[in-house]
Design goal:
- This protein is mainly alpha-helical.
- The chain is built from 59 helices and two strands.
- Strands 1-2 form a two-stranded antiparallel ribbon.
- β1 and β2 (1271-1272) form a beta hairpin.
- α21 packs across α22 and α21 runs parallel beside α23.
- The protein is globular, with a radius of gyration of 36 Å.
């Protein structure tokens, strides 16, 4: 190896005197930057000088001189010298002549060859990085002897320089695998074919290399890069085995520690290699046995590193082409002695929370690997053949890990068990059957809502959760997924063994009912009632068990229903089903007789009974018996105890829902007793006359029976239904209602809010800080009640309930559909004008411009009134139940009044949205309404920017429904006004909110409450952005995803126009109408800069769909072709400027580091498809700082030559914009192997204090609402393009 540092004259080094003077200046400047006593102005000057030096021609010479002079320079100076060399290699390599690049390589090799064991680790790593950076640029072409040099370093006796050379080589091998194969490295991507082949050739063992050498291309025969017979995979495995032998034998502690370090470094080098190397190579190198060697020790850190490496290897997907090698590796890992080692290690490392961090980390990693092995066995039962596996031992270990008190440890195995339930192999089925008892018991126990238990609980599961997750939101998300797997397993067990499973889970529920403290006789007290008490949570868990089991039983019923009468199992299946249904009915009768005083438990008992009723082939008498129980069950309210009273109200609401479910399924049976049923419902209506929700829920129940039952003739049915709907007809035709919607002021007056400013002034709202602590007087409470009552007088709830009852599970072309259409066809045109005006005013109420007549202090009160208190799944630090309790406790306070005001407006808006959505189920009656689109768009979007982000989700949901339900022949007329307003208003709102979030982050608020509010607001904004971003691909792909692009109308009628006429698809409407396309494109462009990686990824994919559609100007074929051509050219220019600029700007932003692949691909496609038609992409790129035209032209040519290779084109873009990118994808921090590190959620952020796989941390729940029905739970590079 060349070790002298002789300068090549092409670098034109300065004279010795000048050289020494410059070095002295560097030393002084670096010292100034590190000295805290130096004035900031001088420090900045020193930093500027050091940065400027990197660009000087002789910078590499200075770098080598500083880095190599061990005697005179300290570590800081040497590191700066390495930075100078790194800058030359990374940013100026292409500017150098061959002699200069040879000299750079010689200097790097010299530094590597002269490393000492005493050198600091960061210096050794930087030299290793330099080696890899040079290799990525010339190895395999100009530099052919790299492997020989690595082997020379490797074989140097450890007695001379310790282990430093081996550690360096291992680091180089690790980084080569990472950058060439695993990571999206731009430089490596440009030479991927050469580097990939070279890396493979030096890695694979001798036998595989011999086979490879015979088949490789002729061009590679002349370019030998490999040195030695062994190959690095086998060589490193052998070295690792030697290290482990030394560690096991023991000896001088310092030497043992040194060899342990070497073993870990060897594993670090093997880990990225396992992700890509041929499985045959892993077999030949005996990798699996090698990785189990640490289990002969008790070193948890070594075992964890080995398990992580094994995990990467086991993650390799099965393919028939490498069946033999894949099976060999799996069988090696599954050998009984290896399973025994894992079991023993699990038992040895079992600990309580906080006892041993390293042991706990090892347990989680072993569980992940064990899950992969279980999946391999269940998905590839051929592994079982041959008798090499001890399946009882393996499945016993799976059960053991499943029962770990740490749910993070058990969840990978739980997931595997859930997948095993669907396996059809008889051997696996036998093993699963033996485990059913433990499975159902464990899963039942784990359905407890641990997040509702107090953090100080002694329950070991709760303590582990506290250790594993920093925040309540993380814990909520994780537990939701854990319970999902548990319910899936219970469902599968009940499907495979319905008799035993149902008997077991129902008996447990009955035992709880008979023995639990759910009645006053057994200790139930309304005074101390809590929905989060342990008895209530235990019953809730058992209810979820029973619900899952009943779903499984339903699936089993469907399975046996397809059996033919001549099949052997038919008779037994029918007998079993009859027996099971009889048992379910008997259980139901026994439960009906049990008294329950707990509202939560009573509600779940009702749900269980109705679920059973809908599951079995129920006889009429059984249906009526359950119905009678639903109608007669009583819970006495106790308003003095708020928690209990709220639970009773919840029970009453659920009772109505369950009755409606029965009406849909058993309308015929209920019609038989309708004359007896109606008086009882009337009584219930009178008992709850103050609660319109219940009143119209009960009336809807009766309506559904008459509408769906078969035993009535059409005239009788229509007459009775029209009589039931008469209050709706009359309410919307009343002149008072129409007048109340004439203007915003009159609308407010109709709701007792006309003098809201005077009321606030009289009660000094502007002078009180804590509204929750101040109670309204009697007059104030009376005013609050008046607002509620006036809101209830608007016929929204009755209309929504009756529409929902009419359309629920309504089949198009059915008699019920025709009846529904006839009922609503005349009233829909009457409802819509007034309804749209109300929606317009309920939105305008939030526009502060409409309150500008008030004094500033009262405008501030209005602004505060409109601010929601919300609970957000995944963000809020309190449970949903605690949130409800807090809201409920402040109903009569000043905050409660504000809550009533905004809740009234929200109810009007959201009930109105629901009414409109339900109307869309009547295609012709709704969409044929003349001149509806424009006023509808105005009502939905005119003041949408004034609403807070959490109130915009319903609008987007409604817009989605309006678009998807619109018949094709109405699309061109109906949809453009809606889409224009939607994208224009929501783009402005969302962009404004992201700017506000950015400003809040810049302020760096330190108050915990402020930070909590910011987190909740940001979470809601992310969800809103995701909803809106997802709407774009919905529009572009909707028709393609439909099996019938132009489905028949839901009422079965023929279209009113010629059916042979081609109706434009949604994407055609969006992309061909400039008035729609422009706001859509603007929103998508802005979304590229919104700091949410999930949303940005979706938009990148959407642009990838859009860009090819405007690649070429269509030929002139019609008089309108000129305007189409202009539109195509304008879109192409917009994408080539604004979209391209946004991509480059985001590429510069470190926040988007993980998105650089997507952004670079998008940039590459703009260049590839548009540069032949326009020079704009080149002009935009040339406008960047220090971007030479020749460099851009060369990059464009390379993209054109890449032949559509995604990685090749991305690599060109990333290399071209290397100086613009804020941070490389993998420069911000090393990325751990899958499953070994923490996963980032949508928009970034870690998934928890400890590593938990991302799939177990996905948050599925959306915003929730509570309280009075209104509270929602819920300079960088700006100048790059010459803009300020």
């Amino acid at each position: 190896m060349e070790e002298d540092g002789a300068l090549d004259t092409t670098y034109d080094p300065p004279p010795d005197a000048s050289n020494q003077q410059q070095l002295d200046i560097v030393r002084a400047a670096l010292a100034a930057t590190l000295n805290p006593r130096i004035p900031n102005e001088i420090r900045q000057q020193a930093l500027h000088h050091l940065e400027k030096l990197k660009h000087q021609p002789d910078a590499p010479h200075y770098g080598y001189t500083l880095a190599s002079d061990v005697e005179q320079n300290d570590d800081a100076l040497r590191y700066y010298g390495l930075q100078l060399l790194e800058f030359a290699v990374r940013y100026r390599w292409l500017e150098y002549a061959p002699a200069q690049t040879d000299q750079l390589r010689a200097w790097v090799l010299s530094l590597a060859g002269n490393l000492r064991d005493s050198d600091a680790l960061f210096l050794r790593n930087k030299i290793g990085q330099l080696w890899v950076e040079v290799a990525k640029r010339c190895w395999g072409e100009e530099w052919m002897d790299m492997d020989e040099l690595l082997l020379e370093l490797w074989e140097k006796p450890m007695g001379e320089s310790g282990v430093v050379n081996k550690v360096l080589v291992l680091y180089v091998l690790e980084m080569l695998s990472e950058d060439i194969v695993n990571n999206e490295d731009a430089v490596a991507g440009l030479r991927l074919e050469i580097l990939g082949a070279a890396l493979n050739e030096i890695m694979i063992p001798h036998g595989l290399y011999e086979e490879h050498a015979r088949t490789r291309p002729a061009t590679r025969q002349q370019q030998e890069v490999r040195c030695g017979d062994q190959g690095w995979l086998a060589r490193v495995c052998g070295f690792f085995a030697e290290c482990m032998k030394f560690v096991r034998m023991g000896g001088v502690p310092e030497e043992v520690q040194s060899m342990t370090t070497c073993a870990v470094k060897a594993l670090n080098a093997l880990r990225p290699t396992m992700a890509w190397v041929s499985l045959k190579a892993a077999v030949e190198a005996n990798c699996v046995d090698c990785l189990f060697l640490p289990f002969h020790t008790e070193d948890a850190a070594l075992q964890t590193a080995a398990t992580e490496t094994l995990y990467v290897l086991l993650c390799r997907q099965y393919n028939a082409h490498w069946h033999e090698a894949w099976s060999h590796l799996q069988l090696q890992a599954l050998r009984p002695d290896h399973i025994t080692m894992i079991r023993q290690t699990f038992e040895r490392t079992a600990s309580s929370t906080g006892d041993d961090e390293a042991a706990y980390t090892l347990q989680k990693m072993m569980a992940e690997s064990l899950s992969l092995l279980a999946d391999a066995v269940s998905q590839h039962p051929l592994l079982i053949e041959g008798g090499k596996l001890d399946l009882p031992m393996l499945f016993d270990l799976l059960l053991y890990v499943l029962q770990s008190k740490s749910l993070v440890v058990s969840i990978p195995v739980l997931h595997s068990w859930s997948k095993m339930m669907a396996v059809q192999d008889h051997t696996i089925i036998d093993m699963v059957l033996q485990a059913l008892g433990t499975l159902i018991q464990t899963c039942s126990e784990r359905l407890l809502r641990y997040e509702l238990l107090p953090s100080e609980s002694e329950d070991e599961v709760v303590r582990f959760l506290g250790e594993d997750f920093d925040t309540t939101p993380e814990r909520h998300a994780f537990l939701g997924n854990y319970r999902r797997y548990c319910t899936g397993i219970i469902q599968a067990i009940a499907r495979s063994r319905p008799m035993e499973a149902m008997q077991h889970v129902l008996e447990q529920m009955r035992s709880l009912l008979h023995n639990g403290p759910y009645t006053s006789d057994r200790g139930f007290e309304t005074e101390t009632y809590s929905r989060n008490s342990m008895p209530v949570l235990q019953f809730d868990a058992q209810f979820n068990v029973v619900s899952s089991a009943l779903k499984g039983f339903s699936l089993w019923c469907l399975d046996v229903a397809v059996l033919g009468q001549d099949e052997p199992l038919y008779a037994k299946a029918q007998a079993d089903r009859a027996s099971a249904e009889q048992s379910l009915q008997e259980w139901s009768y026994s439960v009906i007789s049990v008294q329950v005083d707990d509202p939560e438990v009573a509600a779940q008992v009702l749900q269980t009974l109705v679920l059973i009723l809908r599951t079995v082939k129920s006889q009429p008498e059984f249906v009526l018996h359950v119905l009678q129980h639903l109608l007669t069950m009583r819970l006495d309210d106790d308003p003095a105890h708020t928690a209990f009273s709220d639970a009773v109200k919840g029970f009453e609401g659920l009772r109505v829902i369950e009755l409606q479910k029965l009406a849909l399924v058993f309308a015929n049976e209920l019609l038989e007793v309708y004359d007896e049923l109606e008086p009882r419902i009337v009584e219930l209506v009178q008992a709850h006359i103050d609660d319109q929700r219940l009143v119209w829920g009960y009336r809807s129940f009766l309506f559904m029976i008459i509408h769906r039952a078969k035993g009535l003739d059409r005239e009788t049915r229509m007459a009775r239904l029209q009589q039931m709907l008469k209050p709706v007809y009359e309410a919307w035709q009343g002149p008072d209602l129409t007048r109340s919607a004439v203007s915003l002021q009159i609308f407010c007056e109709s709701l007792a809010l006309g003098d809201l400013g005077d009321f606030y002034k009289a009660y000094r709202f502007d002078q009180i800080q804590d509204w929750s602590a101040h109670q309204l007087d009697e007059a104030g409470q009376a005013r609050q009640q008046m607002v509620k009552d006036r809101g209830d007088l608007i016929p929204l709830r009755m209309t929504k309930n009756m529409l929902a009852a009419t359309t629920e599970k309504l089949k198009p072309s059915s008699e019920e559909y025709d009846t529904a259409s006839a009922l609503w066809s005349d009233i829909i045109p009457v409802i819509l004008p007034t309804l749209l005006q109300m929606l317009r005013h309920a939105q305008a109420f939030h526009n502060l411009n409409n309150w500008s007549h008030l004094p500033d202090e009262l405008q501030a009160v209005i602004r505060r009134t409109l601010q929601d208190r919300f609970w957000q799944s995944g963000i809020s630090n309190e449970s949903k139940e605690d949130f409800y309790a807090r809201i409920s406790g402040s109903k009569t306070s000043y905050e409660g009044f504000a809550s009533t005001v905004r809740g009234t407006m929200r109810n009007i808006r959201e009930q109105g949205y629901q009414i409109i959505y339900l109307m869309t189920k009547f295609d012709e009656q709704f969409y044929s309404t003349e001149s509806l689109a424009v006023p509808l768009a105005e009502a939905l979007f005119a003041d949408a920017e004034a609403l807070s982000a959490n109130h915009l989700h319903p609008i987007i949901n409604l817009a989605t429904g309006l678009v998807s339900r619109c018949p094709p022949h109405y699309r061109e007329r109906f949809l453009p006004p809606l889409l224009i307003q939607l994208f224009t208003k929501l783009d402005a709102k969302i962009s404004q909110e992201w700017e506000a979030i950015g400003a809040a982050h810049d302020r760096n608020a330190t108050e915990a409450d402020e930070l909590g509010d910011e987190m909740r607001v940001e979470s809601v904004l992310r969800q809103l952005t995701f909803s809106m971003v997802s709407f774009v691909p919905f529009l572009l792909e909707y028709d393609r995803q439909q099996q019938q692009p132009t489905p028949p109308l839901r009422n079965g009628a023929a279209a009113t126009n010629d059916s042979s006429h081609h109706h434009p698809t949604l994407s055609e409407i969006v992309l061909s109408d400039p008035s729609v396309l422009e706001p859509l494109m603007l929103f998508c462009t802005h979304a590229l800069r919104m700091r949410d990686t999930r949303c940005c990824t979706i938009i990148c994919k959407a642009f990838r769909t859009i860009i090819p559609l405007f690649q070429q100007t269509p030929p002139p074929t019609s008089p309108s072709s000129a305007s189409n051509n202009d539109n195509t050219a304008q879109v192409r220019e917009f994408i080539s400027t604004a979209v391209l600029q946004s991509c480059i700007t985001s590429l510069h932003d470190p926040y988007f580091a993980d998105m650089q692949k997507d952004l670079a691909s998008l940039i590459a496609h703009v260049i590839l498809l548009y540069s032949p038609s326009t020079d704009t992409p080149q002009e935009v790129l040339c406008s960047l700082p220090d971007m030479a035209v020749a460099r851009v032209e060369k990059a464009f040519a390379r993209i054109a030559k890449a032949g559509g290779s995604e990685r090749g084109m991305r690599a060109v873009v990333l290399e071209l914009l290397e100086g613009v990118r804020g941070v490389g994808i993998y420069e911000a921090g090393r990325i751990g192997v899958a499953g070994a590190g923490t996963g980032a959620g949508a928009g970034g952020g870690e998934a928890g204090k400890r590593g938990v796989r991302r799939e177990y941390m996905e948050i599925e729940a959306g915003p929730a609402r509570g309280g009075e029905g209104e509270e929602v739970e819920l300079e960088g590079v700006a100048g790059l393009f010459g803009e300020v």
